[in-house]
Amino acid sequence: MAMQKFAVTPGFEVGGTLFRPDQLAVLGSIVGEDARIEMTTFKQLYVEMDEERVEEAKAKLEAAGLEVHPAGFVSKSLITCNFCRGAEDSGLDVAKMLDEAIADHPVPNPLKIGYAGCALGTSEPLLKDIAVIKMRNTYDIYVGGEPRGLKASLAKQLHADLTPEQLAPIILKLIAIYQEHGKKKEKFSRFVERMTLDHLRQSTLAERMDTAG
User: Fold this and answer.
1) Do the strands 113-116 and 130-135 form a parallel or antiparallel pair, or are they unpaired?
2) CA nearest neighbour of 104 among 113, 94, 91
3) Could you say which of 3.30.390, 3.30.730, 1.10.1660, 3.30.1370 is the CATH number of the domain covering 3-70?
4) Strand order across the 138-143 sheet
5) Residues 100-126: pLDDT tens digits?
6) Dist CA 163 CA 134 (whole Å)
7) What's the number of CA atoms in the CB half-sphere (13 Å) around residue 31?
8) How far apart are CA 200 and CA 156, in angstroms?
9) Out of 3.90.1200.10, 3.40.630.10, 3.30.1120.10, 3.30.413.10, which CATH number does the structure's domain 79-210 have?
C-alpha cells in the first residue's frame, strides 16, 4: 500500500493554534486506524495514509473546518502566539492575512515563519526563519533564527516600523529570493548568512516603498 503525507492545522484564534478535542476526534475518524499521525515542531500534525484515500480525506477534513497543507519542503503555516492581549491588540486579523499569503510555497528547505502579537514574544519568534513582531501600532520583521545545534542564534532585524500592508509583500519577496538563490536543503539561517542581511534588506526595499502608507 503506497502512503502519502500531508499536514493538518486547526487554524488559529485567541488562545493560539490549538486542536480542540472534537477536531482531533474528527481527524481520527476520517483518516482511519491505519494512518500515522506525527506531531511537528511547527504546530502542524503530519498525517501519512493510503494515497488512494488522501483526496477524499482532505475534502472531509476541510469540510470539518480543519486546514490541510502540503508536507515537506514548503513554507509552513504561520506559527503564532496565543493572542493573549486580545484579537485586536495582538493583530489576529493581520496574522490570518499573513497565514493565507505565506503558507505552502515550495522552498529549498522547510521554512518556519513566526508571529508574536507583542514584544514579549511568547511564541519564540526570534528562533524562527522569519519572524513578525507587533510593536504597538507597527510591525518588525526579523530573519535567520536558528533554534538548534551549537550555533543556535536569534533572528536579526530586517525592517522595523512596518504597516500591516507591507508585511506580506516583503515576506513573499524573501521567499522568492530563497526559491531562486537557496541551495537544496540549505537552512534559511545559513542562506541569510550567505546572502547577508544588508543584501536582503536592500532586495526588499521596493516592497516596503511600494506599500508604504
Assistant:
1) parallel
2) 113
3) 3.30.1370
4) 79-80, 113-116, 130-135, 138-143, 156-162
5) 999 999 999 999 999 999 999 988 999
6) 10
7) 28
8) 12
9) 3.30.413.10
* Terminal CA-CA length for the chain: 54
Q: What share of the chain is helix, strand, coil (3-state, %, to 5)?
A: 40, 25, 35
Report residue 97 CA to chain centroid gap: 12
* Separation CA 203–CA 200 (nearest Å): 5
196, amino acid identity: T
Place of cell 493538518: 8
Is 65's pLDDT higher than 80?
Answer: yes
Q: Where are the domains of the chain?
A: 3-70, 79-210
Q: Which residues, in sequence order, are CB contacts of 70 under 8 Å at separation 6+? A: 6, 7, 104
The CA distance from 154 to 65, in Å, is 35
Predicted pLDDT of residue 20: 84
Range list of β-strands (E), 34-117: 36-39, 45-50, 67-70, 79-80, 113-116
